[in-house]
């Protein structure tokens, strides 16, 4: 075009939406703008709107509106006589319509001060229905000679002259969309049209016709003129410029409201859903730090129960709502992930963002694209690493604006600490715009971690409830005071009458200590072993009065019923004895459903005392008025300072107690070590990349090469300089420098066949092999990758598919072998129950019936048999029985294993099965495993009847609850997502309103996630190939 195109909004203020409705108005707006009805006695609808004055102005300016492409805005600049002629004809036609309408059969109401108006036909008017287009077309052709079409592009002529197009234009207004688009608006039903009384459309000006014709250029046959192409390009360019301008305005400020930059609605949700009306002063200070405002990395450290998580959640919401970026929340345990998903699902529904669970075998790699919605990924440590890898591989890591790590001190926790370090190192190296927030209650060497994360720090010793620490020696209680020379200051003597028999059984006076607070208040007793937990709970019950049974007797009866139901009629004998007194034990020997029931009962006050292991302190938050440490040991190891602080930190319930108490029971021999324990500084958090002979360094180097982050030794050296290991090189790498360690690891990866050097001349870059790619994408331990490849290859030669046993054996975790020793009589009994094909498979992997029979008979076996294979097959038999029966109690009884161990085996197997699936997807020779392992992963994850699986996909819904929901009529995810929480709580037994709300919110969120996944798949299917050939 010769004329210069200008893009400028006519007014800084967006124009009123109260405008004339035309055929260019989007359908959704046209239908919603129904007129007011006249009184019934008239039977008519009368409405008048002023014509938009901008339609009479010269077309000097144009601006795009994302909701209404042309409405309320001027069009494209052109000084040609053609457009001037169009204006004159259009004005004449509008005046002709006005004159015709005033003298017509339909009454109108004049708007004061406006000579121009339109009329709406009454719904009761029986006049023949005629489109306004008919008269308009006639007058248009009379006043517009053929000469005017000489300058019109051929594509527009083709559009106007096409008979099919003419037919489409004659359709009634109700059937039209806002403009000729490829994807029409959703149609309106006849009933809806009758209800809304959609009026006949107003006359379209010639300019409107031209706009519509220009937008139709793209839909015309291939013989399109150059002029039409240029005009369409101009429109596209102008729309793009306008959209960019609006985006720049929206990004100019990220402050959306008064609540720390968030809308007031967020504050209301926190109050309604969490019961928190105001923040602590330290939380307000932390949220207003310069490092937070300027999005610098931050580590904040406070005592347990200080309210750290709420600060993290507010920062996450700010990232999602204000900056429109995704966020990643890393938590240490599956139970914490599920709890957080349930808690934040309601926020996601109210504030329009996705909450996605990455724990166990759940989670998509890479995640579904949000389609306009931002996502909060809540993940365990291992899943977070896999998620970050997939985002790097698809160049989407920059979409994650914030990474929050809870329990940051776990950087020093063995192999899991190494995975946290790998994850954060990759984020720091790849995405400079991603903010990292770390929080922890216990950090010793804060400066090292600050240097690693390039972060600022904030520390505070705030506790919502005062903590008083005590130790007990013999029958005396001493208060802990590190300022004292002896560290302990005498407080009082225990006043409790013990019989001689009782003194022998309860030498540590545990009954005396707990009865000072229960049943009116709560108490936690930390024990060194799982067996000790059960013994202590049973011992306390022996000496409690019968009055304890009467306390909340009905609620405890309900709890026993639920525990029995969760075990399919079976109930733990220890819990059967202790629960009536308000006591229970809590450790990994319980099933996940039993643990959940015990935790909920304790939080509700039904149980007043839990005997537990140290894992409770690091897991779900269950505070108590008094915390008792049965011994300063965890198993055979003396307590670490960090473990001690986590345990005693559970003392004191905010909003309930004025103070909390912790009592450490000591023997004389432990007094010296105990003084160091209560007064020593926190342990130093060291890098664990060198853990297990440098396994972490090997895995890290393999993945950064595979993800194309680095491809040379020098680049690897540069990457390694940004790790915590580099910061602590002098402390950790004592024998060799980090550079030497790096070189040795690269050579070792070459020897294993996981990394190779490019064969291209003068290249020499490092590349991963197919096996190397499968190893890091499957998150397979480098110790087992070769063994796994051999087992899968051997299994493929004679894969047995008439039962699950062979597949189960292939996905039984290697690291579970050491935790279980076979019972040979049980082994032989189960072996004889196998089919002939299954026994043949067992012999093929290296375990024959004769071998098992000899071991069961106690005879020596001369033949050399791989004990790892023997133990894996035994565990595979356990898993097969579990899949067949889905009754954990009966399987535990048959194999003489604890139900907690079987639960751990099942969850570990489902995770490893998912890893093996990703491993085989990268190796063409293992193509048959893809479909087989997909279904097996699903079965191992839930291990229930098939009809319950959709319900158990919802975060926090266990088998017992799924059965209740199914029996109540909530048989699918859609049933649950559309349920009324009030009805749900009344229908399902022992389901509280808060739980019902969380279940419904989680179901809705999961349903949205599945819908987005299907939509993304459809979009990919319909997307035009970028490399499509054209003439």
TrEMBL record:
GO annotations under biological process? Answer: DNA repair
- From start to end residue, where is composition biased (Polar residues)? 32-42
What family does this belong to?
Belongs to the helicase family. SKI2 subfamily.
- PROSITE patterns from the xrefs? HELICASE_ATP_BIND_1 (PS51192), HELICASE_CTER (PS51194)
Domain Helicase C-terminal residue range list: 509-701
Top-rank taxon, per record? Eukaryota
Which cellular component, as a GO term, is one annotated location?
nucleus
Q: What does this protein do?
A: Single-stranded 3'-5' DNA helicase that plays a key role in homology-driven double-strand break (DSB) repair. Involved in different DSB repair mechanisms that are guided by annealing of extensive stretches of complementary bases at break ends, such as microhomology-mediated end-joining (MMEJ), single-strand annealing (SSA) or synthesis-dependent strand annealing (SDSA). Possesses both DNA unwinding and annealing activities. Forms a complex with RAD51, stimulating HELQ DNA helicase activity and ability to unwing DNA. Efficiently unwinds substrates containing 3' overhangs or a D-loop.
Q: What residue stretches are annotated with the Helicase ATP-binding domain?
A: 289-461
GO MF annotation list: 3'-5' DNA helicase activity; ATP binding; DNA binding; hydrolase activity
The UniProt record lists the keyword DNA repair: yes
Q: Ranges of Basic and acidic residues compositional bias?
A: 173-198
Gene3D superfamilies for the chain: 1.10.3380.20, 5' to 3' exonuclease, C-terminal subdomain, P-loop containing nucleotide triphosphate hydrolases
- Entry protein name: Helicase POLQ-like
Catalyzed reactions: ATP + H2O = ADP + phosphate + H(+); Couples ATP hydrolysis with the unwinding of duplex DNA by translocating in the 3'-5' direction
Basic residues composition bias: which ranges? 8-31
Q: Which gene encodes it?
A: HELQ
Q: Where is this region: Disordered?
A: 1-42, 173-207
Keywords assigned by UniProt, alphabetized: ATP-binding, Chromosome, DNA damage, DNA repair, DNA-binding, Helicase, Hydrolase, Isomerase, Nucleotide-binding, Nucleus
- The record lists the organism as Oncorhynchus kisutch (Coho salmon)
Location in or out of the cell? Chromosome; Nucleus
Might you give the EC number(s) for this enzyme? 5.6.2.4
Keyword Ribonucleoprotein recorded:
no
């Amino acid at each position: 075009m010769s004329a210069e195109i200008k893009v400028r909004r006519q007014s800084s203020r967006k124009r009123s939406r109260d405008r004339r409705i035309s055929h260019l108005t989007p359908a959704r707006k046209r239908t919603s703008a129904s007129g007011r009805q006249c009184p019934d006695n008239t039977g008519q609808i009368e409405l008048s709107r002023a014509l938009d004055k901008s339609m009479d102005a010269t077309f000097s300016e144009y601006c795009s509106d994302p909701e209404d492409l042309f409405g309320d805005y001027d069009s494209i600049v052109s000084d040609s006589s053609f457009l001037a002629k169009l204006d004159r004809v259009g004005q004449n036609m509008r005046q002709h319509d006005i004159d015709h309408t005033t003298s017509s059969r339909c009454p109108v109401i004049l708007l004061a001060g406006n000579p121009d108006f339109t009329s709406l036909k009454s719904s009761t008017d029986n006049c023949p229905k005629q489109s306004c287009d008919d008269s308009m077309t006639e007058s248009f052709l009379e006043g517009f000679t053929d000469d005017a079409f000489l300058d019109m592009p051929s594509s527009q002529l083709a559009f106007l002259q096409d008979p099919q197009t003419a037919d489409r234009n004659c359709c009634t207004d109700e059937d039209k969309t806002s403009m000729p688009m490829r994807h029409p608006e959703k149609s309106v039903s006849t009933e809806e049209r009758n209800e809304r009384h959609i009026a006949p459309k107003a006359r379209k000006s010639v300019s409107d016709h031209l706009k519509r014709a220009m937008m139709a250029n793209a839909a015309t046959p291939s013989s399109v003129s150059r002029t039409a192409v240029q005009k369409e390009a101009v429109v596209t360019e102008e729309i793009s410029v306008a959209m960019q301008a609006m985006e720049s305005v929206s990004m100019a400020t990220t402050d959306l409201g008064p609540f720390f930059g968030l809308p007031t609605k967020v504050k209301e949700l926190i109050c309604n859903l969490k019961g928190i009306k105001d923040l602590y002063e330290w939380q307000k200070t932390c949220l207003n730090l310069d490092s937070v405002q300027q999005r610098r990395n931050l580590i904040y450290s406070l005592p347990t129960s200080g309210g750290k998580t709420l600060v993290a959640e507010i920062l996450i919401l700010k990232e999602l709502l204000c900056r429109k970026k995704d966020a990643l929340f890393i938590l240490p345990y599956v139970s914490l992930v599920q709890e957080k998903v349930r808690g934040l699902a309601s926020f996601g529904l109210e504030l329009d963002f996705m909450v996605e669970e990455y724990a166990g075998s759940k989670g998509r790699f890479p995640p579904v694209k949000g389609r306009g919605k931002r996502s909060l990924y809540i993940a365990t440590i291992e899943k977070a690493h896999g998620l970050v890898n997939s985002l790097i591989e698809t160049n989407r890591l920059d979409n994650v604006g914030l990474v929050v790590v809870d329990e940051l001190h776990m950087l020093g926790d063995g192999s899991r600490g190494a995975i946290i370090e790998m994850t954060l190192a990759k984020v720091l190296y790849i995405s400079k715009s991603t903010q990292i927030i770390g929080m922890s209650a216990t950090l010793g060497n804060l400066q090292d971690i600050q240097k690693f994360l390039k972060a600022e720090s904030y520390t505070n010793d705030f506790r919502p409830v005062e903590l008083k620490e005590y130790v007990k020696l013999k029958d005396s209680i001493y208060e802990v005071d590190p300022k004292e020379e002896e560290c302990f200051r005498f407080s009082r003597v225990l006043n409790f009458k013990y019989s001689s028999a009782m003194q022998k059984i309860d030498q540590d006076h545990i009954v005396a200590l707990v009865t000072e607070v229960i049943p009116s208040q709560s108490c936690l007793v930390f024990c060194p072993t799982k067996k000790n937990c059960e013994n202590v709970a049973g011992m306390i019950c022996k000496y409690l009065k019968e009055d304890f049974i009467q306390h909340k007797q009905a609620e405890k009866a309900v709890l026993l019923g639920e525990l029995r139901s969760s075990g399919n009629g079976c109930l733990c004998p220890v819990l059967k004895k202790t629960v009536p007194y308000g006591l229970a034990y809590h450790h990994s020997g319980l099933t996940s459903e039993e643990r959940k029931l015990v935790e909920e009962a304790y939080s509700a006050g039904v149980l007043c005392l839990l005997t537990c292991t140290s894992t409770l302190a690091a897991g779900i938050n269950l505070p108590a008025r008094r915390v008792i440490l049965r011994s300063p040991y965890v198993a055979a190891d003396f307590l670490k300072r960090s473990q001690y602080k986590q345990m005693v930190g559970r003392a004191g319930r905010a909003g309930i107690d004025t103070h909390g108490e912790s009592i450490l029971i000591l023997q004389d021999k432990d007094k010296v070590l105990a003084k160091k324990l209560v007064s020593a500084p926190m342990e130093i958090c060291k890098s664990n990349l060198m853990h297990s002979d440098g396994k972490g360094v090997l895995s890290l180097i393999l993945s950064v090469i595979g993800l194309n982050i680095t491809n040379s030794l020098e680049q690897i050296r540069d990457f390694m300089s940004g790790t915590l290991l580099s910061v602590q090189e002098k402390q950790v790498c004592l024998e060799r420098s980090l550079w030497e360690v790096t070189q040795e690891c690269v050579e070792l990866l070459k020897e294993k066949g996981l990394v190779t050097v490019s064969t291209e001349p003068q290249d020499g870059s490092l590349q991963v092999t197919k096996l190397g790619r499968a190893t890091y994408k499957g998150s397979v331990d480098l110790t087992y990758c070769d063994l796994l490849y051999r087992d899968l290859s051997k299994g493929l030669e004679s894969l047995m598919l008439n039962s699950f046993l062979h597949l189960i054996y292939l996905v039984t975790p290697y690291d579970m072998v050491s935790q279980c020793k076979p019972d040979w009589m049980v082994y032989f009994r189960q072996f004889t129950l196998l089919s002939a094909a299954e026994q043949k498979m067992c012999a093929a992997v290296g375990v024959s019936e004769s071998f098992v029979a000899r071991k069961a008979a106690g005879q020596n076996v001369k033949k050399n048999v791989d004990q790892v294979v023997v133990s894996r097959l035994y565990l595979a038999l356990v898993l097969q029985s579990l899949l067949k029966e889905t009754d954990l109690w009966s399987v535990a009884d048959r194999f003489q294993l604890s139900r907690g161990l079987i639960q751990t085996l099942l969850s570990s197997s489902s995770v490893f099965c998912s890893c093996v699936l990703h491993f085989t997807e990268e190796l063409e020779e293992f193509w048959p495993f893809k479909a087989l392992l997909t279904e097996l992963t699903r079965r191992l994850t839930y291990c229930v009847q098939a009809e319950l699986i959709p319900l158990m996909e919802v975060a926090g819904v266990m088998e017992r609850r799924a059965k209740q929901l199914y029996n109540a009529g909530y048989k699918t995810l859609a049933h649950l997502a559309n349920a009324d929480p009030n009805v749900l709580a009344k229908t399902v037994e022992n389901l509280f309103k808060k739980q019902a709300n969380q279940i419904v919110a989680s179901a809705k969120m999961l349903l949205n996630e599945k819908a987005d996944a299907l939509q993304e798949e459809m979009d990919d299917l319909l997307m035009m190939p970028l490399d499509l050939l054209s003439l």
